[in-house]
Structure formats: structure tokens, C-alpha cells
Amino acid sequence: MAVGNGALAALLPVPGVRLATVSAGIKKPGRKDLVLMELAPGSHCVGVFTRNAFCAAPVIVAREHLADCSGRPAYLLVNTGNANAGTGAPGLADARRCSAALAELTGVEAESVLPFSTGVIGEPLPVQKIIEALPNALTDLQADGWLAAASGIMTTDTRPKAHSLSFHCEGRDYVITGMAKGAGMIRPNMATMLAYLATDVAVSTPLLQALLSEAAELSFNRITIDGDTSTNDACVLVATGAAGNDPVTGAGGALYNALREALQALCVELAQGLVRDGEGASKFVTVQVNGGRNEQECLDVAFTIAHSPLVKTALFASDPNWGRLLAAIGRAGLPELDVRLVGVYLNDVLIAEHGCRAASYREEQGVAAMAPEEIVIRIELQRGAQQATVWTTDFSYDYVRINAEYRT
Amino acid sequence: MAVGNGALAALLPVPGVRLATVSAGIKKPGRKDLVLMELAPGSHCVGVFTRNAFCAAPVIVAREHLADCSGRPAYLLVNTGNANAGTGAPGLADARRCSAALAELTGVEAESVLPFSTGVIGEPLPVQKIIEALPNALTDLQADGWLAAASGIMTTDTRPKAHSLSFHCEGRDYVITGMAKGAGMIRPNMATMLAYLATDVAVSTPLLQALLSEAAELSFNRITIDGDTSTNDACVLVATGAAGNDPVTGAGGALYNALREALQALCVELAQGLVRDGEGASKFVTVQVNGGRNEQECLDVAFTIAHSPLVKTALFASDPNWGRLLAAIGRAGLPELDVRLVGVYLNDVLIAEHGCRAASYREEQGVAAMAPEEIVIRIELQRGAQQATVWTTDFSYDYVRINAEYRT
């Protein structure tokens, strides 16, 4: 199950980036399970990583290498089928062996190769298979390899998630392209979200990191399928500088603004794509909370709604169950919440206010609002000027089936 | 579905308390849906109530009345079939009308009647039906009415939850009896947990409140079905003083200790009963976290595990999925967690340590540990001396069915 048709717009190559997608035999024979990204000299790279204390071996090594190569890696190496998570010290050595092998083949430092893994937790990484597939991958590198790569990083995703934007600024054209995989936060025994983004804009490393952190906060950190945080989450942004502009080093200029806007739009598109393809998803739900004293309390209300199994099963049933929404808002922990001010909307239908069902509300309106695949739940707190939006899915039989049937 | 056979031990009357259970016609004709508890003069009463900001009208009125009668109510009036929640100002008036009608019939002050409701959210309380059933209820009052009352307060519970303990102290016999209903934290569109406890021990009000707060914290606040907090939760403890002892006014004496122990055992028994009868429950799971720096971080880990949909679906599948347990521990937010020290046990089988599968672990052991209806997940943090235990259930197809099929 997934929401919408998932059709992808054309993916634009990013000058300075080439990608290869090959089969290393980690998953079933013939399945593409190894993706290699080559970054031209002059590129640099920033990342945001899982905050899970049990983070996977490749996350630890990728972070180390990114620091050791001063943010200028030559290769990103991604395998699926095995997360190399919950693998202890041997897992760290395995991740380093893969990087070292690619470095030796290509004549770069081992620190210039960032490893990423996604798939089953707790199994030893099949290092030899990965190493043997590297020559093929190097041969296969191509600038228009984004679509194949977006499929190559999938695990139990039902379809690839990728998107491109181009923008024009001060007489020059730029591009930003990205791909991502998801999304359960942990998939069945899988370690989940990976996202790779690249642009040809020249931009300083500190600014690139700030832009990525901000965009991830407003996109990947605003989605939830089941509230579980993966051990392997990673999102990487490459700036190749191939567009030849004077490097952007400070906030506020026209190109900074254009890049920021494009990056945020790209991340939101990919994050929403993860939700639409969430495990067992039959609804795509936007939870928008307005009128909070600060952004955090808006997020607290939005995530309490988005994580509530009772709200999510009601969404699955297309049931306009405003009682469950009120109950979720009421336990979000907001200080001095005056429940008489709170308004609850499904799409644009006011369903509850003054702590009870709205006088104007008719059940047919709620049923009509809940029928489509895409639903907006809007909460008006009426106690401030801040707002926040998160995206989530419903909770279906299929979610239980997918996560219960999958065995270690 | 429910875990275990739910057989109840004999329920002991509490001198000073009489109970009636009658049909007011709120639910289907003939279904008992109104419970009245009469407390003899000299009894007093303390309570703990939901922290949900959208708390139901009867919760607001019961709290008010309890204060206004100085903790000495004469009657507790409980209806099922309608939660009188999400009903705004008219709901408050309805709850007050029920109390006033009973007060008029019995010649007590309206503030001496505490109202409680459980059932569907958002529908007007059928006040007239309740008022018309009061004479019958008054006629029906009897000392051994606990079992009928435990069934009378049920909504979608599949069986009554009640328990008694007697204890002997310094030449005198005492009794404590309680009943509870649950448990989804909100049931399908229902507003959930109610518990009524009574003892014949004479004990001062401040001490009684302290004892109840402590016992509730270690029992009802340590269970979770789905993490949703009801709008109607209430737990009330009555001390009739009918045993004739010198009132207990301070901590530390033999009777204080005996009462405290019996009260905690009663609350744990009832709380576990709510979990065993949780929506769609096929497993009863104890999550025990040892070796924390403080109790709160043990609770954080325990509840993160107990709320994780991925852990709960694995429990449903009897899948010893230690990767999901590690991932849940890792996202519980513990500062400076050294994952290499963490040990994960299923019953007494060590399944993970040093951040990976335990070398000694065999899959057969995990499968055997997960097979029974009752499972203990034990986490050893090895960073302190504190511990905490919570109880929960799995997440089954039936949970989704119960909560998705039920319509507003």
C-alpha cells in the first residue's frame, strides 16, 4: 500500500556527481544493492545523522571520515540488504574495510570514502561481496544515474523517491537533485532513512551545514510513521561548485536565498514521499498546529496527534473521531492550555471548539473530509502566533502485518 | 482477546461501604450501567485524576465536590455508556444535575455526591435516565455488591477486574477491596480508566492521599496499552474507619506499613488486570529496567520500549527481535549512554550485549522465551543503582480492528 501514484518528475544530473548502481549479491541474486556516488574534486559535503545512541557502524565511520577529510570526500558508498547495525566492534572494522578497499582501487585516502548501510539489523556485513562488486560500480558511474540509484537504495520501499529542482540566479543556472529511502522510521527489522542531495552551487562548508540542518529540521524531522527512530538515519548534502559561481559564504544574498528555498522544497518533497510510501500507509495526513506560544509547543501537539495509535486507527477507518483528537491535544503537556479556545478542523471543516463538538458541525461533513487519501488536520490553539506542520500516515492492518510477519 | 483466564479471588466486603448496580437504560436495554457506592458517615475519600487538559465534566465536578465536602462524600455515582467528555459547559451542568438529584433523594448536600462517567465521548449525558434509576439503586445497596459493581463499570472490557486483601495488625483484622475498569488508555472512543478502592482502616486524609498517590504512581501510572491518556481517568480510595482502630496519622508504624503494602499490592493487581484485558492483547509483558542513574531514566527506557509499535508488533509475532529493543533503548534520550554496557534479556536469556547479539545467544532460546503469554523484557543499563518496571501488551490485528471498526 502507498498513497498516490508516486510518479517522479525528470531527474536532473548535477555537474560534478556521477552515480553507479550494481548488484553485489547481498540481497536476492540480480537485485541491485550497491550504489556508488563519485564527487568531483572541489566538491564538499555535510551531513545530519541519527541521534539514536545505538547508531550503526557506518554512521560512526561516515561521521569520522567526513571530519577527517575536512568535508571533502571523493566517494559515498551505499549498500542495502544489511544495515551493519547492532554489530559491535566487528561491524566498525567491516565498514572501514569497505572504505579502504574502494580507496585502494581509486588512489584516494580511506577517509575520502563515506560508507552507508541499510537493511537487516544484527547480521555481519558481507564485506567480500561488496569489495568484489566495486570494479563494476566504478565502470558503471554516470551523470544521469540518479533514478537507478534511487531504486538501488530501496529496501522494503515500494517505489523510489527522488526529485530535482533547477533555479536561475543572477545570470546563471543551478540545479539541486536528491533521493531518499524510508520509511517506517525503522522498517521491519530494517534501519531506515537515507537521503543524498547534491547541488552544483559553490557554497562554503559552514553555510552548507547550516542550510542542511535547517532544511532537515523542517522536512525529515517533521515526519513520523510510527515514532521509532532508526539506528542508521543519514542525510548528506553535496555541493560540487561546478556551476562556477563565486562561493556563497554568507546568508541573505540572492543565490543564498534561492538555494535555501530550493533545498527546503526538495527536502519537503522527499520527506513527504517517505510518508506516502510508509509501511501500510493508506492516508497522507498533514497535521498543522497554529496559534501556539512557541514553535515547540505546536510541534508537541502535532507529534502527539501524529503518534497516537487511536488517532491513526481512526484515520485508517476514515472516521472523523474528534474525541480522540481532543484527547491527544489534552495530553501534549502544554502549560495552562485553555481548552475552550482550541479549534479543530478537518480540511476546512470546523469539527470541535469550546471543548466539544462544534455547533455547526454535521457528521456528513466529517465523513466527506476523511474520505480522500490526503487529509489535513488543523488545530488552532489561539494562544500565540507560532505554528508547525508535520506529516504522517494512518495505522492499518498492513502495518501490523508487515511488522509482525517479518522475522529476525 | 485477553491474557490469562481472569479468574477473580473472593471479594471481601468493606465495613462502611455498600454498593448497588442497576440498569438505567444508557446502554442496551437490560445492561447494568449505573453503579452507586454509599460510604458510611465517618468515611473519607481521596482521589487521583487524569492529567489530560481536556478532562471530562464529571472529573471536574468530582474534584470540586471532593474539596467542597472536605474529603467526606456520602456517595460515588458511576455511569457507563457515556463519558460526558467533550461536552463543554452543558456537560458540567449535566454532571451537577445528577449529583443534585441523588442529594435531594437522600438528604445530603450536593457536594457529598461525586459523579463519574465512562463510555462514548461527545454525546450529551442522558441525565433523565440516570435520575430515574436512582431510587432502584438506593434500594439495591448491599455490602457484598463489589463483584456486580466491577461488572457494572465495564465498557468494552471483556471481564471484571477486582481484588481483595485482608491483613492483621496489632490484634485487629483489616480489609481492602478494589475494582477497576480499563483499558486502551482510551478505549475505542471511550474514556477509560476508573478505579474504586476502599478499606476499613481509620487513617488521616493527608496520609490517605499520600498513600494513594504513591500506590497509583507504582501501578496505574506504570501501565500502557497504547500511550494514550484518557480524559476520564480517576482512581478513588475510601477509608471508612469502621475497623475502629486509632486513626493512623503518620508514616512508619506497623499499621501504616501493613496498609501501604496491601494498597500497593491491590493497585498492582488491578493495574496488571487492566493490561491483561487490554485491547487486542495477546501478551502480558513486564518491562524491567535496572542499573539506571535515577528512576526517571529507567522509566524513560521502559516506556520507550513499551510504546514502540515495532517492539509491540514483534511481541505479537512472538519474534525475539533484539534489534528493535536496542533501537528503542537508543532513542530514549539518556545522556551519555554507553551502549557497550547495555544488556538485554528475554526472561533470563541474555540476547544482546556490547551493542550486538550476545555471543552465547541461540535463536531457539529467544523463540522459546517469546512463546508464552507472559514475557519479561529486562534491560541492564549498568550505570547506576536505580530501577523501574512497567507493564504493557503487544500490538495485534485486533487492536487495529477494535479501534478502526468502532465509529463515532
Spatial shape of chain A: globular
Oligomer: homodimer
The CATH architecture category of the largest domain in chain A equals: 4-Layer Sandwich
Straight-line N-to-C gap of chain A:
23 Å
Largest sheet descriptor of chain A:
7 strands, mixed
CA radius of gyration of chain A is 22 Å
CATH-assigned fold name of the largest domain in chain A: L-amino peptidase D-ALA esterase/amidase
Supply the number of helical segments of chain A. Answer: 11
Helix content of chain A: 25-40%
Mind telling me the CATH class of the largest domain in chain A? Answer: Alpha Beta
Order of helices and strands of chain A: EEEHEHEHHEEEHEEHEHHHEEEHEEH
Query: Mean pLDDT score of chain A, rounded?
Result: 90
Largest interface: A-B, 68 and 68 residues
Subunit structure (chains A, B): Heterotetramer of two alpha and two beta chains.
Protein name (chains A, B): Arginine biosynthesis bifunctional protein ArgJ
Catalytic activity (chains A, B): L-glutamate + acetyl-CoA = N-acetyl-L-glutamate + CoA + H(+); N(2)-acetyl-L-ornithine + L-glutamate = N-acetyl-L-glutamate + L-ornithine
EC number (chains A, B): 2.3.1.35, 2.3.1.1
